[in-house]
Design goal:
Layout (H helix, E strand, L loop, with lengths): L4 E7 L5 H13 L3 E7 L7 H9 L22 E4 L17 E3 L5 H10 L4 H20 L9 H18 L27 H6 L24 E5 L5 H10 L4 E6 L2 H14 L4 E5 L12 E7 L8 H11 E14 L5 H4 L2 H5 L8 H11 L2 E8 L3 H4 L12 E9 L1
Helix pairs in contact: 1-4, 2-4, 3-4, 5-8, 9-12
This protein binds S-adenosylmethionine (SAM).
C-alpha cells in the first residue's frame, strides 16, 4: 500500500519555484511525500532554475511544466502555493483540497531588477540560488509544518498532557524552565484569575495551563448546563460549578485519561456533586445534541489539528441561543513554517494557533453569529516565557473568543 502524502506545489508559470519545490521534495522527502507541481499559466522549465538545482545536486531537467487543471480531480493531501506575497496574487486551486501558502520571492523578477542595474549574470544567478536554498529549508519542515497527520499530532499532545497530569503541574520544556512556563500554577494570576478564584478550587486543580479566564466572560447563570472542552485538572469546571449552583451542571471533556483521573479525584476531594468528567476528543464530543447552554474552553482548541470539526461539534452540542466563551491562543501573523513544524511549540499551545480571520471564518461556517475575537495584547509578556528564545511572542496572543448559536 502506498501511504505517501501527495503534495502539489502550485504557482503561476510552473517554471521555477514550484519546480524547485517538486525537485527538493523528491530529493529530501521522497520516502514520505510524492510531489507534483503545476501552474495556472505554465511556461516551461526555467533553465536558470534547472542550472542552480543541478549545482545543489538535484536534477529537475526531466520535470514537466503542466497546467493545474490536470490535478483538479486527482487525490491530493495538500496543495502548497509558493508565489511571493508581495509581488503576485496566489493562484486559486480548482479542487476541494487543503491549500497552504508558503511565499517565496520570484527569482526572474529579482534577476531582472539586478540586470537593469547592470549586474553580472553570476549575480543574477545568485537570486535563483538564494530562493533555491529558502525552498530547501521549507521542504525540510514538511510534512509536519502542514499538520497533515492528525493522529500523530493528537498522540503527541496526549503524551505531553499525560506527563503533566502525572507530574502534577509544571511542564517545563526541554529548552529549560522559564520563570512562568505554561504549567506553572502561579501563572494563573497573570492570565486573569483572582486570588479568591485560585484559592476556591481543590488543591492541584489549577495546573496553570490556561491562557485567559473564560468563565469570567461566560456570564454563567444558576441552573445552566456548561461544557468545558479540554478540562485538564478541572480548574474552570470547579469555578463554573459555583456559578451554575446545585441546579446547574458542569461537564468537562478531555482526551487524556490521566487528566480525567486527576480531575475526578479533584472533584471527589472538593465534594462537587454537579460536576462530571468525560473522556473524549473535542472533535467528537461525547455529549448529546442541543444539550449545553454554554461551552467554555481554555487554551485547548489551538491544540486541535481539525479546528473546523471542533466548531461544528460545538454548534451541534449547544442549544439554540447557547453561548461559546473560549480563551485560546491565536496567530496575529502567519507563523514561519519551521515554528509550525516544531512539535514542542505545537504541544505548548503556540504553533497550532489559527489566524484570527481563519477562526472567524470557521465559526461563521459552522453557523455561529455574534462572533467576536478580542485579542489580549498584554499576553505577549507571558507567552514569551512559554518557549524562551523562540520568538513565538511575535506571532501569537491570547484571545477571548465569543459566539452565539
Ligand atoms: C493546555 S491544557 C488546558 C487545560 C485546562 N483547560 C486548563 O486551563 O487548565 C490542554 C488540555 O486539553 C486537552 N486536549 C488537547 N487536545 C484535545 C482534544 N483534541 N480533545 C480533548 N482534549 C484535548 C489536553 O489533554 C489537556 O488536558
Amino acid at each position: 500500500m502506498n501511504d505517501k502524502l501527495k503534495i502539489l506545489f502550485l504557482c503561476t508559470g510552473n517554471s521555477c519555484r514550484s519546480q524547485m519545490a517538486e525537485g527538493w521534495c523528491r530529493q529530501l522527502k521522497g520516502g514520505e511525500i510524492t510531489a507534483f507541481s503545476a501552474g495556472t499559466a505554465p511556461q516551461g522549465l526555467n533553465p536558470h532554475a534547472v542550472r542552480v538545482m543541478a549545482e545543489a545536486g538535484v536534477d529537475i531537467s526531466g520535470q514537466r511544466s503542466q497546467h493545474v487543471d490536470a490535478f483538479k480531480d486527482r487525490p491530493l493531501d495538500a496543495v502548497v502555493t509558493v508565489c511571493g506575497d508581495a509581488q503576485e496574487n496566489c493562484p486559486v486551486f480548482p479542487g476541494p483540497h487543503k491549500v497552504f501558502h508558503a511565499g517565496f520571492p520570484d527569482p526572474p523578477t529579482m534577476a531582472a531588477e539586478l540586470a537593469a542595474q547592470g549586474a553580472s549574470e553570476e549575480a543574477q544567478l545568485d537570486c535563483y540560488r538564494q530562493v533555491r536554498d529558502q525552498i530547501r529549508d521549507y521542504i525540510l519542515t514538511l510534512p509536519e509544518a502542514l499538520q497533515l497527520r492528525p493522529e500523530e499530532i493528537r498522540a503527541q499532545v496526549r503524551s505531553r498532557y499525560a506527563g503533566i497530569a502525572v507530574r502534577g503541574g509544571s511542564c517545563c520544556s526541554s529548552s529549560g524552565c522559564s520563570p512562568q512556563p505554561l504549567g506553572s500554577p502561579s501563572a494563573s494570576a497573570s492570565v486573569g484569575y483572582t486570588a479568591e478564584e485560585m484559592a476556591a478550587v481543590p488543591e492541584g486543580a489549577n495546573m496553570g495551563l490556561g491562557c485567559g479566564n473564560p468563565q469570567a466572560v461566560a456570564e454563567l447563570k444558576p441552573g445552566e448546563t456548561v461544557l468545558d472542552l479540554g478540562s485538564g485538572g478541572g480548574f474552570d469546571c470547579f469555578l463554573a460549578a459555583r456559578q451554575v449552583g446545585a441546579s446547574g451542571r458542569v461537564i468537562g471533556v478531555d482526551m487524556t485519561p490521566e487528566m480525567i483521573s486527576k480531575a475526578r479525584a479533584n472533584a471527589r476531594q472538593g465534594g462537587y456533586a454537579n460536576v462530571e468528567f468525560r473522556l473524549g476528543e473535542i472533535e467528537h464530543l461525547p455529549v448529546a445534541d442541543s444539550s449545553a447552554d454554554v461551552i467554555m474552553s481554555n487554551c485547548v482548541i489551538n491544540l486541535s489539528p481539525d479546528k473546523a470539526q471542533v466548531f461544528a461539534e460545538i454548534f451541534r452540542v449547544l442549544r439554540p441561543g447557547g453561548r461559546l466563551a473560549v480563551s485560546d491562543v491565536v496567530a496575529i501573523v502567519p507563523l514561519p513554517p519551521e515554528l509550525r513544524a516544531d512539535m514542542e511549540a505545537y504541544t505548548s499551545c503556540a504553533a497550532g494557533a489559527a489566524q484570527v480571520s481563519e477562526l472567524e471564518a470557521m465559526l461563521r461556517q459552522a453557523g455561529f453569529s455574534a462572533v467576536s475575537v478580542e485579542i489580549n495584547e498584554e499576553s505577549r509578556a507571558f507567552i514569551k516565557d512559554w518557549l524562551p528564545g523562540s520568538g513565538i511572542e511575535n506571532y501569537v496572543r491570547s484571545a477571548l473568543i465569543k459566539a452565539v448559536k
